[in-house]
Amino acid sequence: MSLYNHRLNRAGYPEVKATVRPMTGADLDRIMYIEHSSFSTPWSRQAFVTELKDNEYARYFCLELEGKIIGYMGLWLILDEGHITNVAIEPEHRGQGWGQYLMRSVIAKMRDEGVERMTLEVRVSNLAAMHLYEALGFKPAGVRKGYYFDTREDAIIMWLELE
Questions:
Q1: pTM exceeds 0.70
Q2: 35 in catalytic set
Q3: Which residue is catalytic, options 116, 121, 148, 153?
Q4: Is 51 a catalytic residue?
Q5: Which residues, 6 or more positions from 33, have their beta carbon under 8 angstroms from its beta carbon?
Q6: CA dihedral sign, ordered 19, 61, 135, 44
Q7: In the prediction, which pLDDT does 4 show?
Q8: Domain 4-116 fold
Q9: pLDDT tens for residues 20-57?
Q10: What does each C-alpha distance from 110 to 92, 116, 120 come to in angstroms?
Q11: Burial (Cβ within 10 Å: 0-12, 13-18, ≥19) of residue 20
Q12: In which element (H, E) is residue 83 found?
């Protein structure tokens, strides 16, 4: 079942069919490719399996472009808040607006479901992600010192109030 199914007319690109839909276990081969090409310390396949099967608070979505998964986003719903756990777009499609498209689609779905605010953490060095989140309306609200265990890098905590 598709959450959003749009034809996008993007400058310099033919009209394409993009779909944001719930992630399933059948998507994991493609998700693992994107995960490993996106993060220095990627999640394991078992972590995604556990999230999909056992975490009642978890919601994961895939972004398909012409039927091929090119990105995903996960979050935990706790009361009226959504905590974004991960967002990734495959390298070949970065810088084309697909991360923003995916996030806007999921944010709209969460708003429709009564979520009042969303939060995430981002590495202080990940300026591209911070710019994306700020463009979506997220505001910095604090720092988690040494948050990332691989580098002990700090994380910026960002919040978005949904209206």
A1: yes
A2: no
A3: 121
A4: no
A5: 90
A6: negative
A7: 47
A8: Aminopeptidase (3.40.630)
A9: 999 999 999 999 999 999 988 899 999 999 999 999 99
A10: 28, 8, 15
A11: buried
A12: strand 81-89
pLDDT value of residue 34: 98
Which pair of structure tokens corresponds to residue 88?
């990734």
Q: Which tokens sit at 92?
A: 């070949």
Q: What are phi and psi of 81, to 5 degrees?
A: -120, 145
Q: For position 2, what pLDDT does the model report? A: 43
SS3 breakdown of the chain: % helix, strand, coil, rounded to 5?
Answer: 30, 40, 30
In the chain, the amino acid numbered 37 is S
Q: What pLDDT digit, counting tens, does each position of 107-127 carry? A: 999 999 999 999 999 999 999
**In whole angstroms, how far apart are CA 72 and each of 14, 46, 156?**
23, 16, 21
Place of tokens 């069919």: 17
Q: Given 60, 72, 101, 133, which residue is catalytic?
A: 133
Q: Which two tokens stand for residue 130?
A: 């911070």
DSSP helix/strand/coil, 15: coil
